[in-house]
Every structure is written in structure tokens, then in C-alpha cells.
Amino acid sequence: MADWKRGLRRVLYPAYEARVVRRLPADRLPKHVGVMLDGNRRWAKAVGQDAAHGHRAGAANISPLLQWCEELGVEVVTLWLLSTDNLNRPAAELSELLGIIEEAVSDLASEQRWRLHPVGALDLLPAGTARRLKEASEQTRDVDGLIVNIAVGYGGRREIADAVRSLLSDHASRGTSIEELADTLDVDHIAEHLYTKGQPDPDLVIRTSGEQRLGGFLLWQSAHSEFYFCEAYWPDFRRVDFLRAVRAYAERERRFGA
Asked: Are 203 and 32 within 8 A, CB to CB?
């Protein structure tokens, strides 16, 4: 892009963003935003770099996103960094990606600004990665700020299976029979055992890179969510893109299944 175009954007975008923020209705803003950080590898390929370069660029864009969410009063953000399917990637690529995730999560924890909560099947991850995620959670446990769910080794089907397994184990320890459980089981009982138990369901789910599918992200929790699909690859996702997503959400009439 020509330098003059870049310069023009630097001048115009802040004014445009400020106008969008002013027009956002305060009573129609999301409290929980889920983000599928997609497109790192394709972005890297487009700029002639390897996948690791794309993942690092994507990691660098996480802190700005959380700041944008804070500005609008968002209370919970769920970031999908690595799916259970991603664990099947070539060993060398996966090892490098996990290292980048570990570093990114440690950097977020060191800011002592957000409360980090790992969500996912940590037992499927290398011991070192699982330990770093747990350490970040413990390190930010008392932070009074935005709750940030770090979805690593996450899959929606796996989460539901884990929730049912946890529920059965819990009732077995109390001596509840299968028949008794079957008579009383409802959706709230399962929700109490999800990775995000105690949190509000996501109001808005954003996916970058132009893909228009969930891919298993927050399958249970997103039953009534609004979805926004952005063409930009995650490393190129800007504040103006985020504000447009929130504006689109605010303009919709939520029907909650009706």
C-alpha cells in the first residue's frame, strides 16, 4: 500500500472509531465475547513467512483486543487459541505453536490486568504447557478485572463429554443411582460442569479469516449467541474491525431461539 494511503488511514480511522463508539447503545453491548483467532498461517503465507511468524503476530494482537473489550465494559472474553484437532499437526509445528502460546499466556499474566482461566482438556497437552496455563491462572487469581478464558486443547464435543463425565462422577460420589439421576437431569445440571461454569454464555462470537463455521467453539454455550464473521486474518484484525462487530451485534434483535 502506498505511504500516503497509510498516512490517510492513520488520520481518518481514529476519528471514525470514535464516532462508532459514541453511537454504540450502552444497554446493547455484549458482556461475554468469544473470539476464534483464525488465519495466522494464511496471513504468514501471504507475507512470505513461515507459520511461526504468523502465530507470533497473532499472539501480539491479543493484548490490544483485551484492551478494546475493556473500553466497552465487556466482562468475559473467551479466546480459542488451539483446538483438540490442532493437536494432530506435525510435531515440529505443534511444539513451536505451543511454545508461542505459553509465552503469550505468561506475558498476559505478567501484566496483572486480567484474570486468566484455562479452558480445555489440559490432560491432552504436554505437561509443560498445562503447567504454564495453570501457573498463569494461579498468578492472576486475585486480579479484579476482565475474565479471559484461554481455550487451549479445546473442543466443544470434548467439553460436553467432560461435563457429563464430571456430573456422573459427582453424583456417584454422593450415592445417586443412574435411575435417580435420569429422573432429575436437566440442562442446568450439565452447564454446572462445563469449563465455563458460573460464567454468562457468550453474547457475541467473532471469527476472523472469512471462515463461516463454528468448528466446535463453545457448542453448548453459543446456543443463543450472535455471530460475526470478519474477512481479516487474525493478525490484521484491528480496533475498527472489533467495533464493527460490536455495532453489528448491537443492531440485531436477539430472539433467544424464538
From this structure: yes
pTM of the entire structure?
A: 0.92
Known active-site residue 86: yes
Which residue is catalytic, options 61, 86, 107, 170? Answer: 86
Element (H, E) at 153: strand 147-154
Among 189, 179, 107, residue whose Cα is nearest residue 150: 107
Instruction: State which amino acid sits at residue 72.
Output: L
Residues of the chain with pLDDT under 50: none
Considering 38, 201, 203, 241, which one is annotated as catalytic?
A: 38
* CATH class of the domain at 35-251: alpha beta
CA of residue 110 relative to chain centroid, distance: 19
Sign of CA dihedral 189, 215, 56, 35: negative
Residue 241 appears among annotated catalytic residues: no
